[in-house]
Write a structure and sequence with these properties.
By secondary structure, this protein is α+β, with helices and mostly antiparallel strands. About 45% of the residues lie in helices and about 20% in strands. The chain contains 15 helices and twelve strands. The strands form two sheets. The chain has a seven-stranded mixed beta sheet with strand order 1-2-3-7-4-6-5, with helices on both faces. The model has no long low-confidence stretch (mean pLDDT about 95).
Length: about 425
Amino acid sequence: MKFETISKENRYNKTTLENGIRVLSEYLPDSESYALGICVKAGARDDFKGVAGIAHFLEHIIFKGSKKLSARKIATSFESLGAYTNAFTTQENTLFYVRALNPHFDKTFSMLSDIVLHPEMKSRDIEKEKSVIIEEIKSYEDDPEEQIFDFADNMIFGEHPLGTPIVGTVDSISQINSELLREYHQTYFQPSNLIVVASGAITHNHILKLANKYLKYSNEPKNIPSRLAPEIVEPSELTVSKQIQQTHLVYAKRIEGIKSVERYPMSVLNVLLGDGMSSRLYQNVREKSGLAYSVYSSIQLFEDCGGFYIYSATDSRNEKKLKQSLLKEIINLRINTVKESELNRAKEQLKSSVIMEMESKSSRIQSLVKNEFQLGYYEDSTATINAINAVCLDDIKLLADKYFNEENWNLVTIKPD
């Protein structure tokens, strides 16, 4: 085993087992509960070609039973311990996790390992789950604020899997069968592609003992497909009509990914522009102009690329005014100097969100996974705060000049039919 401790407080530990599985833990001695997760470096961008949504589908089907436990037994066994278990799929990872009280760590470790590594994937369960996920897809299509970001991603990333909804489409979900799911599981759920992660008052050595006991892997290793960055797509406009009450807009643009030096300056700029009640978008578009109830900006950062989004919705009669107002804020960010007080406000807000996230053990294990899979190194909250503090006005100016002109934006509009 490769053993590594990287923390001034001696709280963070990392070990690579002989079979290649990485074990990450954060020791919180005063905690009476823990978060435990098993994460695979496979998400929507790793879907098989033509089978969008298979990563998300597998996340669902894993809870339908293992070779030892039925779906009902999984649910009752966790809940009889007072444990909360869940999973989610992102574009780049799938995380299965449990939250419970310390005395139940060994039992939940055993069950979580079993269902993640040994899912049964019965055909009748797969057919039932198709209906469930198709209903999930329809629920997104009924929510224009949700759906418009899928349209925006498709315009930014084109035919690349990052441009396809995580849940897939009705057509792609209809193609999924047990053979495809088993092939996907065997391809990506391999030791070198898995992380066991825990946060709480459980020692690293105890976690290693359980990992060696329950995470034995006998399958022959397969080559894990390499990820390809999406090609640059020419910006365009899309208008969609639906039976809704408001017109919804998103301006979207591709940016650099999580490993870029732009990561923290862009995060600060996003807060400054459109995250919070004191942001420029909220104050100028909503408070001063009264053009919209909802207006904000957001970013997505992947390992090799990212997206910047500006969203708002308004009465259809104000569509033209809203577009002009949003473009004005885009241009003003570049031509009007950002004040030091404005920058400091954004930095304080971002730092607060970082610290408050760390009060959740579920968020802590997600952060550990992101550090390992996306960044490739451990970054504690102190390093994050220092990086935010280091952002200066020149950094914001450089980003504004690079990205925030009125040209080269993708525009998606969903309007009433």
